[in-house]
Amino acid sequence: MKRWYYLIVAVAFIAGGIISIAIAQPDNVTIDNKYPKKIKTPVILSHKLHVDKGVACTECHHTWKKEEAPAPKKCAECHKADDKGTTGLKNAYHSNCIDCHKELKSAGKPTGPTVKCSECHTSK
Ligand code: HEC
Ligand code: HEC
Ligand code: HEC
Ligand code: HEC
Predict the structure, then answer these.
(1) Residue 117 Cα, ligand 3 centroid: separation in angstroms?
(2) How far is the CA of 30 from the centre of ligand 3 (A)?
(3) pLDDT at site 56
(4) Residue 41 has pLDDT above 60, yes or no
């Protein structure tokens, strides 16, 4: 009987490992959506840097519940590229990224770009 127990524990452990690999975020993601008119270059976001600095997944993936879905949805599934309002795709990204950086900056903490376009729009 005991051996079965160990086998089940081992299987559960391996399965858990595979699941956590499956939902692990890539080190870098290239944010490159289609817009009616694409003006700037795509943005390469370092997931790794943000996660290492303690930024929670849900600071960006604000609707994601780990227990409900293995991976977060794309922002563009809800925020639309042809919408110029505050919750349109471009403004959703800008508010998410820039507002956090600005808040940290005013708190005197190290942070990312708050103004300079080329510090985020780095890709060719
Ligand atoms: C903190 C990072 C950050 C900064 C700083 C930033 N952006 Fe962006 N911007 C983004 C992200 C992320 C996207 C989403 C890119 C996508 O969806 O392809 C975006 C999208 C855009 C878009 C829509 C996509 C396109 O190429 O047409 C425009 C226009 C834009 N930014 C202009 C600017 C301008 C102008 C500045 C400087 C005044 C700027 N951004 C500064 C992160 C930033
Ligand atoms: C600083 C903001 C931010 C943080 C923090 C963040 N993500 Fe992301 N993540 C993004 C953006 C932006 C994308 C690109 C998807 C999009 O633009 O719709 C993305 C993409 C992803 C993808 C899809 C990758 C792909 O290749 O399509 C996964 C999976 C993911 N994130 C998981 C996570 C997990 C898990 C965490 C926490 C450990 C996390 N993210 C933390 C912003 C973030
Ligand atoms: C499942 C749908 C969904 C997804 C996916 C989603 N959002 Fe949202 N988001 C919303 C809705 C709905 C609102 C407006 C209501 C609210 O404030 O919750 C919103 C509001 C926001 C706001 C506040 C805008 C403002 O100033 O009023 C930001 C910023 C934002 N989202 C960024 C993002 C980013 C960045 C991503 C991807 C990493 C993302 N969202 C993914 C549905 C979504
Ligand atoms: C909730 C807060 C938060 C959000 C949201 C956020 N960032 Fe950051 N960002 C940080 C912090 C913290 C740092 C690291 C400061 C440091 O060096 O310690 C950082 C650093 C950066 C840097 C500088 C990286 C470097 O190599 O020095 C870039 C570029 C950047 N962020 C882009 C983005 C983009 C693009 C988004 C939106 C998709 C985003 N950030 C969203 C908090 C945030």
Answers:
(1) 22
(2) 19
(3) 96
(4) yes
